[in-house]
Amino acid sequence: MKTKILTLVLALLLAGCATHAGLTGSPRTTPEMDVDYAVQKDMRYTPDGWPAELRADLWRPAIGGAKPAVLLIHGGGWVGGKRQHMDGIARRLARRGYVVMNISYRFAPQSRHPAQFEDARQALRWLRANHAALQVDPQRVAAWGYSAGAHLASLLGAADTPPADRVQAVVAGGIPADFRNYPDSPLIGKLMGTTLADDRAGWSAASPLLRVGRGSPPFFLYHGGWDRLVGVENAEAMKAALDAAGVPAELHVQRGLGHISAFLFDGGAVRAGIAFLDAKM
């Protein structure tokens, strides 16, 4: 028991250690600092005829007027996970005054890329189509994801994504930015249904790093400095590409944390990500 307690204390201490690069100014403040909210569960967002019936939970702050929104996308290596894993982030965003759409999506290998992206894009379209009823400002919608979810959120911010299907900001944690660096990854193999050797163009097109351009929205990246599953060099390379394209971007490195621990003990990254959205949205 003492060992478990010491381990937890150490993780919490490490979570407080982080470096931050690319600060672009002081975040604006909003009056909705700790507002009440309601949750509507299991809202279907896919139309009839979609390959799967997919649902989302809507977190709606109890304040009037058109509000910014965040499309929340869970991780799980594209083969699993569930949207409820993102509830902690959804709650913090809702209490800040954001409408949150926390989605489920299809999994590999039964559904190959770009099925997961198509699901996320459909969720974004549904959110904007229902903006009046949801009291959402359709021109202030961000995407936030972790791991596989960060990959999908970043594709919604790709420079070559049509503006109607592009978000206004992206928060991406633990992002697998460049598939070409993982030619033997079983998870990417299941997602793509091909190998890098056989489908280099496809793997490149699915890599957020290679979709960065001047049309990309502002990005906030956070990543565990000890991540051995999805190395921190992914976030560093993504930040460099955004900088080169002239896109506002920040990188928050969570020192001493790995891929899973950086999600469980975010080390202030979620707070910094919300402040980034406050400033950019």
Q: What's the number of extended β-strand segments?
A: 9
What does the oligomeric state look like here? Answer: single chain
The CATH homologous superfamily is called Alpha/Beta hydrolase fold, catalytic domain
Count of runs of 4 or more consecutive helical residues: 10
Low-confidence stretches: 1-17, 23-32
Largest beta sheet: what is the strand line-up?
1-9-8-7-6-4-5-3-2
Please summarize the sheet with the most strands. Answer: 9 strands, mixed
Q: What is the CATH top level name?
A: Alpha Beta
CATH architecture: 3-Layer(aba) Sandwich
Radius of gyration: 18 Å
What name is given to the CATH topology? Rossmann fold
The ordered H/E elements are: HEEEEHEHHEHEHHEHEHH
| The number of domains | 1
Mean pLDDT: 91
Calculate the terminal CA-CA distance, rounded to whole Å: 45 Å
User: What structural category arises from helix and sheet content?
Assistant: alpha/beta
Choose one word for the global shape: globular
Strand content: 15-25%
Helix content: 25-40%
List the helices and strands and how they pair.
Blueprint: H1 2-15, E1 18-21, E2 37-44, E3 55-61, E4 67-73, H2 87-96, E5 99-103, H3 115-129, H4 131-134, E6 136-146, H5 148-155, E7 169-173, H6 186-192, H7 200-205, E8 219-224, H8 233-244, E9 249-254, H9 259-264, H10 269-280
